[in-house]
Amino acid sequence: MVVPTVDELPTAPDRGAGGAQFDLDAAAWAAAIGAWTTQVNALGLDVNSKHAEILAAALAGDLPPLTGHALKLLRVNAGEAGVEFFDLPLATALAAGVVKKSTSPINIAGTDDTTYPTVAGVVEIIGEQVPSDKVFNSGPQTIISAGLLTMAHGLAGITPSSKFRFDILLECIIAQGGYTVGHHSPINVGGTLSGTGAQGTSITWDATNFYVRYGALSAVFQFLNHTTGARYSPTNAYWKFHLRAELDG
Question: Which of 2, 72, 155, 244 could form a cystine bridge with 85, CB 3.0-4.6 A?
């Protein structure tokens, strides 16, 4: 089949070329534009016709009917003689489909990259990396200047010589210093001494408890104003203290 062609239009009329030349170009343009429009329309009809033919050929050939297969996947069938639609299989421990759920032994071994863990599996993996019997989380604690915070850790085999990694977070409960309610700000472990007193914490422990001594200044902690970057001494009652301790070894 011959593909319709579209002839090039003559030079467009330009008043800058002068009156006589403009009249000649305008006459040529007007004479050609009608035929050119007909050619463009014919080309458009031909493109639409080809599109319909291609779609009809596909639907009548290897591609199965689309009706009733919304949101399904397409794959080569088992006999490799055509294609078929199929539902995405549910992720189970046994199904060898597009996705496959890992089992508990796979989570722990961490050697199979063809499966994925469930939410419970992710928790299991994290727990395997840091056993819960080696970690203490205090939850929110009240901050009192010069106060002693005593917290039972529930960890076995702890002595004063046991080694821990500590993390301190201050939780904002009343907006202040550029921080919003719910914000958790990490704080260095240890104290800071000045000419007027001490800020920060000291931490000791025994077989039963962690003991946190707060600094004696009216503002136990000091860090940066999140808006201005200036030194900021937070009001104790506006924040809660969180301690996380992980047994080292």
Answer: 72
